[in-house]
Design brief:
It is built from four helices and six strands; from the N terminus they run H-E-E-H-H-H-E-E-E-E. It is of the alpha+beta class. The chain has one domain: Beta-Lactamase (2-Layer Sandwich), CATH 3.30.450.20. A hairpin with a 5-residue loop joins strand 4 and strand 5.
Length: 137
């Protein structure tokens, strides 16, 4: 659309999507090509215990326990070179382990999307009752 009506529709669309991202219960994060955090919504702050402004510019690995960081960098690069637009991160039978600001490890499910020059992830905390009995979940 063009003209004033098109501009109004675009602004409404932008406001609508911005509100969805701000108010969703799922944590949403965006990273750049260097895996630096460029956006984190309020649910991300709540899940990981970091204020958004503290996360911005940080390496994505700040949200992972040390033992998973090296492999995660390689996994992100593999995803980006795969040509896929989206992928569930981790095996469906397991969850990913994240690390909160206070050091607590949490289990999360995550979806990763490639979007132009940045990458976006949707994260959801997995309740303990959904963990696998073997402790690897």
């Amino acid at each position: 659309m063009t003209g004033a009506a098109g501009e109004t529709t675009t602004k409404l669309d932008n406001d609508f999507y911005r509100d969805i991202v701000r108010h969703t219960a799922d944590a949403i994060i965006a990273i750049d090509a260097d895996q630096k955090i460029v956006f984190a919504n309020p649910a991300m702050e709540q899940m990981f215990g970091y204020p958004s402004e503290e996360l911005l510019g940080q390496d994505l690995n700040i949200l992972l326990p040390d033992r998973f960081r090296k492999d995660h960098v390689a996994q992100v690069h593999n995803f980006l070179s795969s040509g896929e637009d989206a992928r569930y991160m981790g095996k469906r039978l397991t969850q990913i382990v994240g690390r909160r600001a206070d050091g607590e490890e949490i289990r999360i499910g995550a979806m990763h999307r490639a979007c132009k020059s940045w990458r976006q992830g949707d994260l959801r905390r997995v309740p303990a009752r959904h963990l696998m009995a073997d402790g690897n979940g």
